[in-house]
Design a protein that fits this description.
By secondary structure, the chain is an alpha+beta fold. It has one domain. A 6-stranded antiparallel β-sheet has the order 2-4-3-9-8-10. Strands 1, 5, 6 and 7 form a 4-stranded antiparallel β-sheet that branches.
Length: 274
Amino acid sequence: MSTYVPLNREQHDRLRLAQTRSYAPFRTVTSVPIILDEMTMAAREYPILFPEGEAQMPFVLMGMTPETNAFVDEAGNWLANYIPLDVRKYPFGLSATPAAASGAEAVAEDEGKTRYTLCIDPEAPDLEDLDGPLVFQPQGALCDGAKARADIAQRLLERSAITKALVQVLEDAGLLVPREISMNLGLEKRRLRGFRVVDEKKLNALSDEDFTNLRNKGGLPLVYAQLMSMANLRLGPLAGQRKSAPVDAGSDQPSSQDFDLSGFADDEDFDIFH
């Protein structure tokens, strides 16, 4: 993906938004941050991890090696039912600026606080459709598709603070611990470091008072979503499985194009190191 630039009515008045989305720019994106609102849906299809260091945004893992994304195929299709909001807002985003550039679209601004400017990736494939609606309508408002993505960008900005605060709750409870993932896919061994997960043993060892405190502060949804999400390392695109031709209704055997998950029954094929 190229550098974002402020969206400007004068410079981008002829820009059009494609009717059909392409996720090709995300082929080399291995992870994206998610907010609290997404945890339940994301946990069904992606592993959810926490960065090392001070409380930061949780993220979904989409590739085990640099510049790979198992959830985007060669045609730019997304291979999961739930698409993270950080992906869905593309090619729009918000950028903090001391003062918005002349003519730029200011999406979020409060007196005495940081000003945010709506930006766009001018080289996005979503902007190459000559038949799509103009990003700017004649009266100057954003078209429906552009406004929807700008609204997602603003929602991500507004909900990031509460998400980080809840991660800090897990941090204060001593539940986040560093881990390392090692996965064998065929003859290739992949290893991932530099992240943290919820330690289930520490969770179970919490006193009644500490557990109640964790619940009252709203930390439990993050805890359970993260723990359940780790099953996605064994299933779906990240484990090597891609959407393929439907399995014959009269057969219980997987299609030859499906990834054989039986190998993951062996502990040598999949490990999480403490």
